Amino acid sequence: MKRVLLISLCLLIAVFQIGCENKDRDAEKNLKYIRNLDSYVCNVNISMKNDKQTVTYSGKQFYDKTYGLRFNLGNNRIYIYKDENVFVKDLKSNNEYTTRKDSDSIFKLSFVAYYITLLYTDENIKNSFKKLNNEEYQIVSLDIPGNNKNVSSADLYIRLSDKVPKYLYVYGLKGKENIKVEYLSFDPNRKLSKRIFDTK
Q1: Exposure winner among 111, 113, 117, 180, fewest CB in 10 A?
Q2: What are phi and psi of 25, to 5 degrees?
Q3: Residue pLDDT, tens place only, 98-111
Q4: Banded model confidence at residue 78, pLDDT cuts 50, 70, 90
Q5: Structurally, how many domains does the chain consist of?
Q6: Residue 137 pLDDT > 60, yes or no?
Q7: What phi-psi label fits residue 133: left (phi over 0), alpha (psi between -120 and 50 degrees) or beta?
């Protein structure tokens, strides 16, 4: 009798664990969470590779669906993205200038907010799952629009335990990894002041 009860208990635990795992692996539910982010703040480490070297950047990102995007590049520059323009403030020289958003491919592509837009428009989204460093991730594979052969597609790693983005890999046309982004201290739906995104 005890043996039957023990076997039944083991089966119940196994079913419960499988059920929990399948719940975490609900790809559409996790994507819905990302799509519905109203804002976020996070630190980022960006590595850009080419044939000769790897260039690294560190900074802080701010996103608000009403106010726009802001990227603090260390203690050197502030980038504020609005409409089709990027407002840049050089903190070393105290100079300010404006450029077109499409002239900045690295920092713009590092924003999770950029991929939130693609989640609504990309018809070729693919989902897979992977365990990395004892953490379970959903990998969202997307095509990046445009004619830049160095930024053709991307894999966004969403940590299943809390549904927040952790890594982003951007690939060239031939599948070569050109950009890696690591998101740290990702704080979703943080209430942000409009002043953070002021360009004056």
Answers
A1: 117
A2: -90, 25
A3: 988 666 668 989 99
A4: very high
A5: 1
A6: yes
A7: left
pTM (2 d.p.): 0.83
Residue (of 18, 64, 34) closest to 162 by Cα position:
34
* Among candidate residues 172, 169, 198, 197, the one with its CA nearest the CA of residue 182: 169
Residue 25 has pLDDT above 80, yes or no: no
Q: Name the pairing type of β-strands 153-159 and 135-143.
A: antiparallel
Look up the CATH number of the domain holding residue 119. Answer: 2.50.20.10
In Å, the largest CA–CA distance within the chain is 80
Map tokens 């590049």 to a residue.
73
- 200 burial via Cβ count (<10 Å: 0-12, 13-18, 19+): exposed
Q: How far apart are CA 162 and CA 42, in angstroms?
A: 15
